Amino acid sequence: MAKRKIRVGLIGCGGNMRRAHLPRFRADGGVNLVCVADPDQEAAEALIQDWGGDVAHYEDYRQLIRNEDLEAVVISSPHALHYEHARLVLQKGLHVLIEKPLTISSRQSKTLIGLSDKHKKLMVVSYQRNFMAPHTYARELIRSGEIGDLRGVVAYVTQNWGSARGWRLDPEMSGGGMFMDTGSHLVASVLWITGLEPVEVSAYMDNAGKQVDINAVVNVRFKGGASGTLNTFGNAGCHDERIAIHGSKGCIVFHLHRWQVKSVLVNDRPMKVPARIKERTPDEAFFGMIRNGGKGYEPADFALQVARLSEAAYRSVAGKKPVKVAR
């Protein structure tokens, strides 16, 4: 049975949209790409050529939202623009898949979650790890009490940011450096899997000669007494990522390397993920939930916690002292 077609528009035609999202649209088989918006005509034309077919291009995203008959919009634009882009999409009554982080401020994130609820539209944040089978199962195990009461988290992600360029190095457009960008995946994974809520943060950051942070050491105290460290190192040789979650009865330890899951240990034994838990991409999950009427959808409350923790980390660095996480 053929999938129901979904009329989709895109905001942002950069490399991430072309290399990550476009192949997922093709794999879905039911995406009708109607239009794209990007002030960079060359980038838009390259994406349209990659896709093939008749796709309209708008330099102004507002015209795309006003003029086109769409069901959903996918956003992959600079972090500081996420709020305005997603706000107009939701106000128009459209579903939205938005690249991480949801926004660069907790106030903006809270507003978008409220609009999503008000208009009864899906708003999915494209954190790939939250759709990986081991991460999904780890969340189940923690919720069921498999490792007991949570006591602490030790996590880090490394990357070689030597090739970073463009808006990611502009604090006005990015909202921050490695911690706001790749680090956001780490923070989101920890908060989504564990359900922990940050209450106090003490952070140190090093810009390594750039306008944005490259390295960060972030200490967090969570509601309920757990504590942890969430660290990012952007001048390392390559991607490596570890998350160790410790409870009163056991632990779960993730290792990812060069963007692949290498191992997941539960109490020092390899995790056995049940066959019922399927690996998905954010795009696959998003389009699936649109077609099934929202079954399996959860509001992006964890993304609000990500914004609150990130905000607190940057405030701690600016004030050179621990800070309470805004509520």
CATH homologous superfamily descriptor of the largest domain: Dihydrodipicolinate Reductase, domain 2
Q: Report the CATH topology name of the largest domain.
A: Dihydrodipicolinate Reductase, domain 2
**Strand elements, count:** 15
Q: What count of structural domains? A: 2
The level of helicity is 25-40%
Q: What strand order characterises the main sheet?
A: 14-13-12-11-7-10-9-8-15
Can you count the helices? 10
- CATH class of the largest domain equals Alpha Beta
If you compute it from the alpha carbons, what radius of gyration comes out, rounded to the nearest whole angstrom? 20 Å
Structural class: alpha/beta
Largest sheet: 9 strands, mixed
Oligomer: single chain
Low-confidence stretches: none
| SSE arrangement, N to C | EHEHEHEHEHEHEHHEEEEEEEHHE
CATH architecture of the largest domain: 2-Layer Sandwich
Give the helices and strands, then pairings.
Blueprint: E1 6-11, H1 15-28, E2 31-37, H2 41-51, E3 56-58, H3 61-67, E4 72-75, H4 82-91, E5 95-98, H5 106-119, E6 123-125, H6 133-143, E7 150-160, H7 171-174, H8 182-194, E8 198-206, E9 215-222, E10 227-233, E11 235-247, E12 251-257, E13 260-266, E14 269-270, H9 282-291, H10 301-319, E15 323-324
